[in-house]
Amino acid sequence: MSICLNSTLALLLAAGAGLGAAEPLSLETAIRRAWTDQAGLRAGQAMVESRQAEAEGLRDLRLPTLTLGASGIRTDEPMQSFGIKLNQARIGAADFNPLSLNHPDAIGAYGGSLVLQQSLYTGGRISAARRAGEYLAQAEQASQERRRQETAQAVVEAYFGVQVGEQALRWVEDTRAWVQGLEDFVGARVQQGLLLESELQRLKAVHAQVDAQKAEVLRQLRSARSGLGLLTGSGPVEEPLGTSLEATLGAPEPGTAMRPDLVAADLQAKAAHEGAAAAQGANRPEVGLEVGAGTLHHSWSDKGTWTYAALGVKWKVFSAPDQAKVKAARAQERAATDLRRFKQQQAAHEVRLAEEGVKAAEARGLAARAALSAAEESRRLRELRHREGLLPLTEVLDAEAAVQGARTLILQSLFDLRTSRAGLDLASGHPIEGVKP
Prior knowledge:
It contains ten helices and four strands. By secondary structure, it is an alpha+beta fold. It has a four-stranded antiparallel sheet with strand order 1-2-3-4, covered by helices on one side.
């Protein structure tokens, strides 16, 4: 019975350990988590929604305006008193008595009105403003997509920065174990009188340096995990990472896609053009229609009602502020056009730099691997000769330093290659690491 119970408990503990193990965080999951959970991108999406609401408001300028009014009044002001009675349709002969006209009794009234206003022609201002609003909303959406891509690139750098820290920590542990083994060997030889005590002290100093290096690597690793958590909208990332730094990378997508920031710049230039047209429309005449109805009550049954319809033309022939606004709008149009041209030139420059960065990272990676193989072989041979008493300890330590330098170069080249590829994707407008919304 106890054997069965122990077996059951062991199975339950194993199952619990399996359930408690954190699932590895893939790079794609980290990027998508940043897109949905990061407060900065959520703020950007709110800006998109704000622009879209503004565009809807500008589109609705072409619709008529319906105004409902209600009022109540009590006054003995002569003109208002006579007008109120007239609107209430209860003027009599006695109301023309000079005494009543000059000193009327206080009168009360309540009523309401309904007014419909419709712009028929505004010099193109409404149409231009509507188009400008649509362009700005689309530009903000494109800018948000660019911010998402930039965030994805930052996630790539932070994600693989964590992996670089983890690999560096493993290599530091390997170095620490190697130094400990060498220290044990030298300590035994010192006790036998075959080596000087200074050799052992030198190894202890190297051991302390490796411990200090481990502490620094741990600090950098924690910082990288905290940075990754900031980008993904969570706290420091504690789960293991599932996408390898050395994963096979496919060939970069050929050509240059339409970058969202270039799309935004083009739309902003179009919006500025429409804004200049809207400002120019202020110098043109406008035609409007107004239809209304009203009622004014003395009592519920004692009231007056009226209707009216008016068609009017208004032309602001000259206005210095409006002229200044036209000049400002035209200057903004030129600025937006020049900025679009500069961004296009900047994008081409960034693509060239990113392509060279990828090539350089690949070359450094090949050189680093060759250097590591040579350094490890040199360390192995020097350690064997040192154990045979044919080489001083300094030669072995120099070989170990060469191994650490080659390892650092490999890690840096792998990190540079992965981040350079992400930079090329960003510069050329392709999805970062192939992750699409």
